[in-house]
Amino acid sequence: MKNTKITATTNDMCPMCQAGQLKLKTGAYETAFNDGEEEQTLTVPDMRWLECEKCGEVVLDDNAMDRIDQAKYKILGLLTPADIMAIRGRLQKTQEQMAALLGIGKKTYCRWENGTFFQIRVNDRYLRWIARMLDECPEAIEILKELAGETPEKSPKPKTVGIASHKRRLSPEGSVMSSLYQFDPNLSGHGVFRKRDLCCTG
Q: According to the model, what pLDDT value does residue 58 have?
C-alpha cells in the first residue's frame, strides 16, 4: 500500500489511480519506515486518514503526518527535529554555525532539522549533552566552542584615566577603574508531495 500527502477530502477521486473515491478511515494506523539500518513497524492510535476504495492509496493530512513523525522519533528514542532546533536556538547559532560546532556537514545538520534523515545515536547523545550543559555547566559549552575553533570574544581593555592629557597618579593603596565598563523523515511511502522548507534557512 502506497501513501501520499496532498490536499483531499472524502469522495474526491484518488490522486493516484484516478478511478476510485477516497473514503474516511479511523482507528490505529499501521505503517513502516527505515531507521537507516533496518525497517521498523509503527502503529499510531486514534488516527484519521483517507483511503482509495479501489487501489488502497492512503492520503494523510498535516496533523496525521506530524503525529506519525512524533511516534517515529519516540520509538527510536531520538530527539525530534523541533528539539534539535530548540537547542540551536538556545546557542543562538545559525545552521552552518551549529554544524561547525558539532563537527559535521551543514547539509547533514539541515537534514536532522527538517526530518529528512535521523541523527545516529552517538550524535543524539552529543546533542543531549549540550542541552544538559546549557542548564548545568555553561562553562563546558565555552570549552566545546574552543575545541571547535571558535575565537572567544575578548573583553575591552580598560582605558587609561587622564585629566587634560596627563595621566592621573594612582595611590599606592588602589587603582582607578571606570564604573562604565561591563563584561558582557523519513517514513517509507509517506510525504511524497510534502513541502520541506526548513533546510538551510540559517
A: 92
Identify the pLDDT of residue 8. Answer: 58
CA 33 to chain centre: 19
Residue 48 φ then ψ, to 5°: -130, 135
Q: What are phi and psi of 160, to 5 degrees?
A: -70, 125
Characterise 155 by phi-psi region: left (phi > 0), alpha (psi -120 to 50), beta (else). beta
Non-local CB neighbours of 100 within 8 Å, separated by 6+ positions: 148, 149
**Which residue type, as a one-letter code, is found at position 171?**
S
pLDDT for residue 88: 96
Contact 125, 169 (CB under 8 A): no
d(CA 160, CA 177): 9
